[in-house]
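Q: What would this complex look like in 3D?
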Amino acid sequence: MSARLEADHLFKVFGRRQGEAVERLRAGADREELRADGTTAAVIDVSFTVDPGQIFVVMGLSGSGKSTLLRMLNGLLEPTAGHVRFDGRDLTALGDRELREVRARKISMVFQHFALFPHRSVLDNAAYGLAVQGVPRAEREKRAARALELCGLAGWETSWPDELSGGMQQRVGLARALATDADLLLMDESFSALDPLIRRDMQDQLLTLQKTLKKTIVFITHDLNEAMRLGDRIAVMRDGRIVQNGTAEDILLRPADDYVASFIQDVDRSRVLTAGAVMDTSVTADAPLCRCETASPTTPFAELCAISARVPHRVSVVDGAGRLVGVVPQQRLVGFLGDGPADPVPCDAPDGKVAAHA
Amino acid sequence: MPRLHLGDWVDSGVDWLVAHLSWLFDAVKAVVEGMYDGIDAVLTAPQPLLLAGILAVLAWWLRGLVAGVLSFAGFALIDSLDLWDQAMSTLSLVLVATLIALAVSLPLGIWAARSRAVSATVKPVLDLLQTMPSMVLLIPAILFFGMGVPAGVVATLIFALAPGVRMTELGIRQVDAELVEAAEAFGTTPRDTLLRVQLPLALPTIMAGVNQVIMLGLSMVVIAGMVGTGGLGGAVNEAIGQLDIGLGFEAGLGIVVLAVYLDRLTGALGTRLSPLGRRAAAKARTTAWSHRPRPAVAVACVAALALVAGGLGVFGGPSGTAEATGENVGRGKEVKLGYIPWDEGIASTYLWKEILEQRGFEVTTTQYAAGPLYTGLATGQVDVQTDAWLPTTHAEYWQKYGKRLDDLGRWYGPTSLELTVPSYVKDVNSLADLRNKSAEFHGRIVGIEPSAGMMGLLKDKVLQEYGLKGSYEVVDGSTPAMLAELKRAYAKKQPVLVTLWSPHWAYARYDLKKLKDPRGAWGKGDGVHTVARRGFAEDNPEAGRWLKDFSMTEQQLTDLEARIQQAGKGKEQDAARAWLADHPGLLDKWAPVDGGAADSKAAAATDSRAAG
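A: Here is my prediction, written as structure tokens for the whole assembly.
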């Protein structure tokens, strides 16, 4: 399957002598050097691909360049160097008019502070993208109402944005983005302004919607837990560069550097890990051949623990075709809950007596 | 420091503009005049109370019942003060100035909001236009556009432009950047972003700007009245010139009514236009007093009143004053008289208006300040003025414009300039007596406009001659201020020393004493001359000859002035007509027509016989 969205060596530099700055960055100069000259490198040599139906999360702290990156993906900002390809089309080569056309029909966006138009009703807000496309009123109101219903806002059509709670306002924002039937959804810290409980609800709703809608989503966040919950793939940005691009497990289990490692300390691993990540694939030969309960590679960690408690020996992990792909010893489970997989150290009291050192 | 000849550059720049861009100014003038005439025609067509009703319905619709009732009361008050026509002409002037100001300032504000460079360029220009004293702009405006409405509109416009531009720019810049980004993210074109997002959200701020434009425009009408725009501003100027506190207050009150009405109405319009404002208004609890009719009802009311107004307009005949008797020499030819609101000027101007109209001319009279009047004559905006004090008092104007004017000769004189004290100041009879008396007058001589010729004469020559320099300070001010000071001191019987001239009504009203000038420092008196634009006498040989031969005795002039003063404001021409009727033969003496006199007498005789 070809990529829906591809970022190809993107650079974005603000300030003077941008071309020169890109050359210096390519040659290995860092951000601080450029800042001294009055140029700000927001995004440095970023490349990635997003497959259709995937949620691609860009995670980074403020100032890491993630919002700038997002705005280059739909052409709101023009890259200083590099290309953005959407369905094989180079967006950076398009003129203003064509670019607007793409934004109107193919790419929509959800904002951090909702960005609802205060002078339009909820329905008119949801229908905004369609109005821009020139869809006749009756049809666009029908489609907007359907999008609102999908987002759980049926019955609120005639309300005004300021009458809604934050979570509901962002649902309107989401409905507005969904109403145009765009293939690509750009979400800029869309849940960051909501309080934690509402944020969870919204994450769940997004995942539920995604099961049926199968949009391609680029999601920006500064919250690694959110990234882990939502992301099929996660790119961690630091100072304008992507320092690691992988699945949630990649990042959790194999952090690329200390920076990423320091991030994952606070992450609740049991929510992220699955049997596929934890299992030992090297020892399949002596796997149990009994009829005991088994796990699949996607079984969440918590459930795996429950199975392990019921099964007297190692848990077998079996793929869809019934083939054995790995085993999970109990000790390994406990190890993962700690700082990482550890090999057991032999005990000097093998009979299992508990002794207290004096 | 070397002297920077900035003023000279401005002078030559203005001259160059007048010489090379007159086509542009003429075009602007035509547009402004067209708009003004159109609006004024609409506003003055219906009966005053009907229009007051229409305006009240508008207020009712936009603001509620109380506003409607109060507006009707306000406009009825204007009508009952006999200021309706002036108020409507002021309203037209403000509306034209506002419309043009908005047509300029909205696009400029939008442009400035989108480009920092434009914003940075426009800002200082606006500062300059807004803070430059408006009188400074008024004279070039006359040179470019001539006297009257266009110059007034342009001066108002320049003054009122700034808040329109600023508030538009501010309103657009204040729109949340994320909203603009959201619009762009959904592929909105820049034009639609402006129309669908930025302008609707900026509307309350923009309407506040519109409101400011109108208010500033209204505050300019008095100053614009000095260049002959007429209206309430003209009335205020006239009242100031004659120290007529009552009339000044009435005209001022008219301006206040207009200002309050326009202010409340534009405020309400902002609420009605902006979607957010509409919502807020819909939420607010309505009472009987704030009840507003639905738009359809309001439109129906306005339409019904307008229809009635239109009907009356068709059937009601115009009530003119001009009726040609005797020989119709003028055949409807137009003569534009300008005058300074001095008593002899008013008297002679309305006298000639009556005479010329009886001889078949169409005569318009407009009041100006002296400077604009001479400018108007030099540029041909005004045909004749009868109140030129030459050679001394108006020497500066004559020096500047004399070559472009025709002096039709002296009709009254000599006049005199003097320092004057009330008669109850016993010990001062001559300028020489003023020495060592400065304490009595607190060392002050109450002067008039520093630009007046006599002020220069007083400071440079008279004080010198009598050794008064240093012991007296000449207080610059204005003629009305001087007269007010005289009136105040006279009422309290305090000693006061003022600059005055003869003829002046103050001598009739108060018991005053002209200080003798044994050394002749004031020079010989002026004559009151009639001055015409170059070529007027050739274009109108009869009228030119009449004006050249015209002269009045002191007896006649004071008699006529008294008549006019008695008749009161707005009835000057009636008084002149009555006065002429009481002095049979003067008309034919001043405006002789070959054989015409006999005919008209015969006709009059026939008429009276038929009536009898």
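A: To summarize the key features: Chain A touches chain B through 27 residues (CB under 8 Å). The mean pLDDT of chain A is 85.
Q: Very helpful, thank you.
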